[in-house]
Amino acid sequence: MTWDEFRNDWYPEHVACFTGIPAWMAKLEKASDGPATRDVMKRWYGVLRDVELDDAKRASHRMHAGEFDEPKGFDRHPAAIRKACGVSRRNAEANKPRYDADGNRTYACLLCLDDGLVRCWHPATVADAAKTGSVPFPAYSCVLRCTCNAGDQQPQIGQSPRFDSKQALPFSGCVSDRKEQQRLLDWIANREPIRPENFEPDFESQTMAF
Ligand SMILES: [Zn+2]
Known about the structure:
By secondary structure, the chain is mainly alpha-helical. It has helices at about 5-15, 20-30, 35-50, 55-65, 75-90, 125-130, 150, 180-190; strands at about 100, 105, 115-120, 140-145. β1 (about 100) and β2 form a beta hairpin. The longest helix is centred in the N-terminal third of the chain and has 15 residues, at about 5-15. It is elongated. Residues about 85-90 and about 200-210 have low confidence and may be disordered. Bound molecules: zinc ion. Zinc ion (ZN) binds near residues 112, 148, 150 and 151.
């Protein structure tokens, strides 16, 4: 969950279940060398940031309902919630969103942003553009499996092609975007020639046109 989700959504929900928490936080802050509430909240968030918002809220309700033991001391609540969520989410470990300490979304793979798929120019469009020197109309894109862990977890249909930076050019936006088209033409002009033994005959048939 993001910091905003933690602060504005999960925390109020959790406090509605365990109503003594705000007074406990306030008491800590009032003590001469006690931690500020915001610092405590940041620590709590550090424990919970890898947990999905809905899972965390559900865990709070389950803890409140006595489905698992409330730990002694409020400062152990985040770990108990995380543990309650971890058990049910262990299988999704590799796919779950990551956040840094300030609650900004981060990615393990900047190529696919952790969804395992890389959108590229379609090989047929690349071949046309290479032949004629301009991007054909209509132009097509395709989706290739990324080379990262998330790509490994994408379902394999036949020999789903893997992204290879020598053979495919990722792009964002729209196939009719002039800047993207120019990037494609530049890439074609600068790429190394593809040797026939590297060419995969299944490549085109396995891709999806948009
Ligand atoms: Zn990736």
